[in-house]
Sequence to fold (573 residues):
Amino acid sequence: MDDLRYQVDLLTAKNQKLINNERMYNMICESSGCAFVYLNYVNNSIKLAGNWDLFFDFRISDLSEVSHLTDYFKEEDSIRLKNLLYIEKEGKDSATDEFELEGKERWVSVSVKVNCDDTGLPGEKLITLNDVSSARSRRDELYYMAYFDMLTGLSNRNHFITQLKDLLVKAERERTVVSVMLIDIDDFHKISDVRGILAGDEVIQSLGVYLKELAGPNIIASRFDSDLFCLAIYDPLGVRSIDKIYDSIRGYLADPIKLTDKSEVKVTVSVGVSEYPESAEDALSLINCAEIVMLKAKDSGKDTIKFFDNQILDHFLKDVEMETKLKEAVHDTNFFLNFQPQYEAEGKILRGVEALLRWRDKDGNLISPSVFIPVAEKNGMIVPIGDFVLEESIKAHAKWKKKFGCSLILSINISSIQYNRPDFVSKILSTVRKYDMDPEELELEITESVLIDDFALVISKMYELRDYGIKVSLDDFGTGFSSLSYLRGLPIDTLKIDKSFIDNLAEDKAAKVITESIINMSKRLGFKTVAEGVESLDQLDYLKGISCDLIQGFYLGRPMDSDNIEELLLRQM
Ligand code: C2E
Ligand code: MG
Ligand code: MG
Fold:
């Protein structure tokens, strides 16, 4: 009897343990958020567990019904899903894949684990279903962020390069052409500066959306960064489609872009085009070639398109070589100054000198400033170079003053890059003070290119300089865009008539008329006139005859070093 009671107690305890285990197992299954299907092929049974209702509004109760699961997923995936549900047929014992539920925009990860018997037939199988929609959308978001530009929805630079590489493989196989078109908005920084970053974003978005519309099976569109876009055009018809695309972009930009604040911005673009296989054969080189010509388009006045050719590459390489040499020169200070005398036309009295920069490169070649100054302006090296000129010329001027007690105007050429720097005026003033220079003896030569930028700011700096007594002279007058009437509002002291007019005085009647009217007008406006590049007595006499105030040129004195200026001053005393 005791034995029986003992057996009953044991069974009750075991039963209770089983009930507890079952409870625990149900709890685990439910809190997992997954649904489970357990199939037992030995006793032909099926058991569902977990959150089945989260996924389906039907239940399976028979082994043969498992294949009906495919009805609830996208039809195009049904073969893939079926293969997964019966992985044992492919000799596998576990696998996982993701599928989208039909009509629910939900993604489900389906895992299958199967245990086979010795004969290879399935004994039991567990199918686990897990909702991965949010992880997947995060993954999609990350994918989007990694490959696309958020502002325009275009491919980003890295993605574009991958796409371009694929396109080049196709072009090589099919012996066709791929063009790369780099598009940069002209003066974009001004739009952003004047109207604000958000307005700048709107402009980028507007052009980006238009380029996205152009994109298709043969055109990939991308935003590289800021206001720089790039298209790759798979072009079985040759480069003619580039012209069409360029025309359509210009057509789009013909009307100003309307911003949300109801204002409008007129936008132009500079475009550079390179072509596979002619310009280069790999993606990065093609982009580089397009960039070189896009920058050329900027240099030649913007709002234009340039096509890559090898001559352009030669020029570019020369510029790069020059840039490298320049960097070394700034470092090794291979620069020095010459000074060219400037005389009163009447009486040949020395009025002053113009400081002219010289550069002897490492190989001993003297390189003309007309060649290296534009390069230095492009890469910003003009700033330290300009500081050198300022310092050295004022130092030399102070030395002459100390030695000879002379009053001499020192003219210094200032590049627009220097002039536009916020610390420009203070830099000039601090150097003037450092050498105790009389500001009235300093004249800054600017060219008309300075005037293209923010006009009000340019003028206010001129007035500021003038308040200290520093003179401003307009160099190379007649070669730029300004008309004489434009000069009326400018607080300048001196006008330098460009050498090209002086060169033609003898044979060109028009040059005479222009020179004469420049001098007359300039007198009425209260400016002094300087004739540059005077090389002969005839020119000098003619200029004196039409009342030109000052003369500079090889006829009266070439640029010379500081010692020669000292000799000149000694003779003048
Ligand atoms: P620029 O300021 O118009 O200087 C006058 C140029 O004409 C100088 O050339 C001078 O040597 C040259 N020249 C003067 N008289 C005659 C003449 O009778 N016949 C001929 N054929 N040429 C004459 P340079 O020194 O080669 O300078 C060329 C340009 O480089 C300058 O034109 C100026 O724009 C720029 N430059 C020179 N030094 C500096 C500098 O320190 N800073 C900046 N930003 N530019 C400079
Ligand atoms: Mg000059
Ligand atoms: Mg000049």
